[in-house]
Every structure is written in structure tokens, then in C-alpha cells.
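Page 42, continued from yesterday. The earlier attempt failed because a stray header line got pasted into the input along with the sequence. Redoing it now with the clean sequence only.
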Amino acid sequence: MLLPPPHYGRSNEVVRSALSKVMWVGRATVFLVGLAVILALMLGVASMAFAAAAGDSLRLGQVNRINDALTTLIGSNSGAMMAIDNDSTAPTARALDLRVEENRAPMRVNSERVVTNLNADQVDG
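This time it went through. C-alpha cells are written below.
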């Protein structure tokens, strides 16, 4: 009885197919891990943008709501410590809007000096 010569092509195809599947699983795993890392970073940054705690920076253009914490600006500048400039020409434009509950003082100072152009002395007549 004559046997056909050994055929190595079929075993090579099986090995190649198995290696191809292993490589596909590896690439899919790397993609999913990368996607998970990117999502975690994005969610972490987004949650930090919405969370505010004492000691955080002021976020411009957003509501900065901190309960039971006083924000204090301390320095030794020879001029003003803060300037607020609203360049709008609208009739309702203001540089500062102080809001308090009824029968509460909107501001307190620790000086008896008259402030130039404040016109607070005109409030009581």
C-alpha cells in the first residue's frame, strides 16, 4: 500500500489561523484598555470642573459656590489688589453686583475714610 507524501500545508494553516485569532484578541484588548483610560481621564477632568472645594481656584465665567467658606485676598501690592472693569456700553452694565438677603448690609469696611465717588452719603438723604 502506498501512502501519500506528508502534507505540511494544512498544519501551517491551522497555526496561522490560531496566531491570527490570538493577535486579533490582543489588538482588541489594547484598544479597549486604551479607550477605558481615555474615558477615565475625560471623566476625571470633567468631574473636577464641576466639583468645587475650599482651596480651589476661582473658575471664571462659572458659578463658584462654596458654602461655609470665606474667600480672602491678601497681599502687599502698593496699588489696588483687584480691579473689575466692565467695558460694556449697555445701560444696565455694572462692574460689581452685591446681593444679600433683605435687611442685610451689602458691604462692610474697616475704615472711617470717605471713598472718592462712592456716593454712599447720598443714600440717607
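Notes: The helical segments are 9-50.
Reminder to self: strip header lines before submitting.
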